[in-house]
Amino acid sequence: MLIVLALILIAGLTGGGLLLWEKGGKKAGPKAKPTPSRVDTRLDWLVRNPEKDKDTGTNGTPKKPVAWFAHGNVIRTRARDITAYDVRQGKEQWNVPLPGVLCAAARRPDHDTVAVMYVRSGSDCNGLMAVDLGSGRKKWDRSLPLNDPRITDYGDPQVLMFRGKVKVMGSSESATFAADDGKVLDHPNLRSSDNCMENRASTDGKILLSVLLCNFGERQFVQRIDPETGKEDWTWKAPEGLEVRGVPSVDPLVVAVSRREPHQDFPTDLISISPEGRTRAVISLTGNGNAGDAIIDKNTVYLSSEGQETANNTQENRIIAIDLATGEKRWESKAGGNRVGWPIGFVGGRPLIYQIAQSGDGGKLVMLAPRDGSPTVYKRMPAESAEEERNVAFMGQVYFENERLFIFSEPNNKAENLLLSFS
């Protein structure tokens, strides 16, 4: 069980920072009511895993796929396609094949358009496709430009959509395209005269943040960009010895960083930043949970701690609330049971925790009181499907949208089912 929990926590932090880099939108649906009409749920439908016995993994495949909710569908990226399922019955509505293996996708659509990167030729991420989420049709497909094909590429890729534009970034290339037709709007030479390059960007749809690496990463900055003019409003410099790993929240702004130490690949601290671009508080993640599952509201970050074995040979962990202004811990909560759980969003202003199913007992959704962490069971999944639920949730992704719970399997998980839906 310790190994299982470790894998779950690691999964939330890997994959080129997909979870950290565009987590402005909350997984919990904004229209959800604070009190459900029915606590006990049912398994409405499931989707069998068509890739259970296939070897679809490549170096370009993202560790964490992306899901969107639009037009009554839940839409999911897979290794070689994008598929939409009706949220009520789980019937496939449309499918868009990819010319190659998926390697990155925009987490936030722009006016029903999403863009994905894929391996167009060779083994590099060098193709870009836009899909309309309403019609389920490909809008355009193109190759990515390179400044020097011999030495530059889009390794460690990221796709971002913002105000009619598609922004693509990698380890040594960056380009911006028109979302409507894929026309190149900007393709800078990242190794400019001041030796700085844009490495990542993040948005909540209103605010745009850019992360710059200078002197080969020795100096790192976060810039807030004016969406109208494209000019910087302010620049924040990362403290010496720290590397920027991601942006768990754009508003309020929280940056994930790690210390410059050998084999230190995951965030070690969170830094909250004021609207004026000044450091508010530094929050150490040592003993305080993992940044991959962080959810953040106006004043508080909520984290899940590592699991601990209990006397009856089960696993449990804690949810930790930390003040963004002071960096001080407000409270810890077991969320009302001997379970492993992690935050997935907010319902009625309260953090919502998913607790994974146990043998013979389905998972739970638990709301926590912001003041002291006291728990209230919001939804209970049925015991009859506990084994299937646990197999899919293992290293998977959980979304709560319009009073429905969706659990997606991790790409390399050979579970029988790809997707479960409860209501």
Spell out the key features of this protein.
disordered N terminus, 423 residues, 4-stranded antiparallel beta sheet, single chain, globular, Methylamine Dehydrogenase, Chain H, mainly beta
Question: Your description of this structure?
Answer:
The protein has helices spanning 2-11, 18-21, 386-393; strands at 43-48, 67-70, 73-77, 81-86, 92-97, 102-105, 113-118, 127-132, 137-143, 158-162, 165-169, 174-178, 184-186, 196-203, 208-214, 219-225, 232-237, 242-249, 253-259, 269-273, 279-284, 290-296, 300-304, 308-309, 315-316, 319-323, 329-333, 341-347, 350-355, 364-368, 375-380, 397-401, 404-408, 417-422. It has 423 residues and is mainly beta. 5% of the residues lie in helices and 44% in strands. The longest helix has 10 residues, at 2-11. It has one domain (2-422): YVTN repeat-like/Quinoprotein amine dehydrogenase (Methylamine Dehydrogenase, Chain H). The chain is globular and about 60 Å long. The chain contains three helices and 34 strands. Strand 26 (319-323) and strand 27 (329-333) form a beta hairpin. The strands form nine sheets. Strands 1-34-33-32 form a four-stranded antiparallel sheet, with helices on one face. Mean pLDDT is 87; it is low at 1-19, 22-32 and 57-61. Residues 74-192, 220-409 form the Pyrrolo-quinoline quinone repeat domain. This is PQQ-binding-like beta-propeller repeat protein. It holds the Pfam family PQQ_2.
